[in-house]
Amino acid sequence: MQFAHPLYFWLLLLLLPLLAWHFLTRRHRSVLTVATTAAHDGRRSLLSLLSELPFLLRMLTLVLVVCVLARPQTTTPQSERETQGINIMMCMDISVSMLTRDLEPNRIEAAKQVAVEFIAGRENDNIGLTLFGGEAFTQCPLTTDHAALLSMFKQVNCNLQQQGIISDGTAIGMGLTNAVSRLSQLKAPSKVIILLTDGANNSGDISPLMAAEIAKKQGIRVYTIAVGRQGKVQQPVAILPNGEYYYQTVESDADPATLRQIAEMTGGLFYAADTKAKLRAIYDDIDKLEKTKLKVHNYNRRYEAYMPFALGAFLCLLLELLLRLTLLRRLPE
Question: What's the pTM value of the predicted model, to 2 decimals?
C-alpha cells in the first residue's frame, strides 16, 4: 500500500499537544468516588479500565482521518515475463474526412471494428495506439493489457477536430514520427507500425518521407493502408447548426504514391482498402509477420483504498460516543 499525499501525515504531530493536555489535566478532573470491595479483591473495576478508552478511540479516529486525507492506494504487482509476439504501434488518422461513408458505416468506424478484431486475437503482441489529425498524440503506449487498449480504441472518433482540440488537416509525418518514438526505445528486432489514413499530408512540421527515413534508421517496418475509395466520394465539408455534418460529393485526396514509398523505404508493404473485407485481409497478412521473443512489462495499476480507514474512523467515533452516553456518562456539575 502507498499514499498519494503522504505530507498529510505531518498532521499527526498535532496529537502530541493533545496527549500532553490529556495527561496534565487528568488529576484535576471532577470525579465521584464510590466505595467498593475491588481493592480487597486485587482487581480494578471494569469502569476504571474503560475510563481511558474514549480518549484512545478519539486519538485513533484522528489517526484514521489523517490516513484518509493521505489517499491510501493499493497496486497490482509489477512483473516481467518473456513471450512470443511482435511490437506494433497502430497509427490511425482521425481527421474529419475519415467520416466519409464509402465504407459501412464510415471509414473510421470500419477501421476501428477491424482493428479491434485484430487486437482481440493477438494476446501476446505488444500493441500501442497513435492518433493524428492536424497534429499527433499517443492514445495508448505499448501494452499487453489489451482490455485497456480496446477500451481506449472504442472511444476513438473525429470529434477532436470538430471541437477544435486538435488542428485541422492530416499530419501523416507527425503521426508516423510519434509512433516511431514509441518503438525506438525497444531492443526487440520485430517492430512494426500500421499506418492507416485516407488523405494526403497537408499539415505538420515533419514530412512523411522524413518520418519514414527515421523509421528506417530505427529498424521499424511500416505497413501503410490507404483506406477508402478513389474518385468521387461523399465527404463531410461543413457542420450544420444542429451539429450534424453536411456531406458533398468531392474528389478523394488520397496519396497512395507517398504511402507506397513509405512502405518500400522501411521494408513494409502498401495496401489499398476500399471495403471492410479488404481491411480484414490486410490484418491477416500482417499476422504472418515473424514472431520474436519480447519482454512484457505488467505495470502497476492503482486503486483507491481509503474506505477501510474511513469506516474505521466512523466506528471509533461512534463507539466513543456510545461509551460517553452510557457506561462512562458523566454526572452534571
Answer: 0.64
